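DOMAIN: structural biology
WANTED: fold as tokens
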Amino acid sequence: MKKILVMVAAAMITATSIFAQDEQPRHEIGVSYGAGISLIGDGIGNGLTDGIFDAMNGRKWENSRELGTVAVEYFCHLNNPRLAVGGVVTYARMGEDVIYEGEKEGERTRNYMSVMPAMKYYWVNKKHFGFYSKAAAGFMYAYAKSDNIRKGTTDKESRFNFMFQASLVGLEGGSTHIRGFFEAGVGEQGIILAGARYRF
């Protein structure tokens, strides 16, 4: 009887080991870098209003300093091999000098932080390659600070906004555990973004 129990236990352990080897990792953590819509919107807005400010009172914005959107994401792959759910956290920053009558009057910085629940749908999900679409929606915290050197004053402003990410095309490739990825779409994570993810 003991021999039979030992043989059954050994068979179960062997079978579990085989299935575990064939099963894809269900969790993943990724990091990406892209150009999100908040910074693109700032760039377009500065281009339009710079001419208006310059014409009205001699002020303009120069020496733009941008940190594109850095994002960290987590996804859990469900029993359905085509579907994964999780979330995305993003951070972006933009700074610039305010110039008045040819001299630096001050500085302005803007920070954007977003938290968005997300899901991915895989059109193709192979062992070393994936083709997917991704959607995320949540909220953004925007914080702006303006320092006026001449007046010695500081103005601060903050607000919460709705934010999203819709990556229509997502491509990933690599090993079972480490993959590089590229996405194209629209949203705060990036119009175009690239990164790497670890699956476990």
